[in-house]
Amino acid sequence: MRNAIVLLSFLLLIWIAGSSYGYVCKIRKDCCTDKTAIVDSVAVKKAIADSIQAAAALQEIPVPGMHTLYFDFNISVCEITAENSSHFELLKKYLAANPGKKILVTGHSDNKGPETAKEKVGARRADFVRQKLAEAGIALDVIVTASESDRKPVADNSTDEGRAKNRRAEIIIQ
């Protein structure tokens, strides 16, 4: 008889445990693993919504247009004006929002002098602008420089005014 009471007590204990599990986990859906899954899915949805909102905010920065800096004859430095600094800041913000983009700085010269000198002065102008962009906080690895010498004039090289417009460095986004 004592064995029967122990056996029935053991079966009663198993039935109570099984009933509790069935009520808590299956009917109320209140198991620990489900709570974690619900919390994690809410956190994931919030993180996704935040990243989409942040990406949309970053995408709103327009692509800066071409900017030109002008130089004196055979000089590869120029004054950085407030307009230039403002454009540098715009470039910096755009690059922060679009990390795969690069800046191309192209140095140009007028048609006075030997070809090698014009090529060198164009390259020095591009390097000067590259250094100023770096000083404005733009990483050097996103700035590409080139020299076009006098191959792409924007004005007539037969006048002083035209030559002055051709002594330039152009900044564009690639």
Please provide a written account of the structure.
This protein is of the alpha+beta class and 174 residues long. It folds into 2 domains: 2-59; 67-173, OmpA-like domain (60s Ribosomal Protein L30, Chain: A, 2-Layer Sandwich), CATH 3.30.1330. The protein is built from 5 helices and 4 strands. The protein has helices spanning 2-27, 32-59, 82-97, 115-135, 160-166, and strands at residues 67-70, 103-108, 143-149, 168-173. The protein has a 4-stranded mixed beta sheet. Helix 4 links the parallel strand 2 (103-108) and strand 3 (143-149). The longest helix is centred in the N-terminal third of the chain and has 28 residues, at 32-59. The radius of gyration is 35 Å and the shape is rod-shaped. The mean pLDDT is 85.
The CATH architecture category of the largest domain equals: 2-Layer Sandwich
Shape: rod-shaped
Q: Mean pLDDT, nearest integer?
A: 85
N-to-C order of helices and strands: HHEHEHEHE
How many distinct domains? Answer: 2
Low-confidence stretches: none
Helix fraction, binned, reads 55-70%
Class from helix and strand fractions: alpha+beta
Q: If helices are DSSP runs of H or I spanning 4 or more residues, what is the number of helices?
A: 5
Instruction: Name the beta content range.
Output: 5-15%
CATH topology of the largest domain: 60s Ribosomal Protein L30, Chain: A
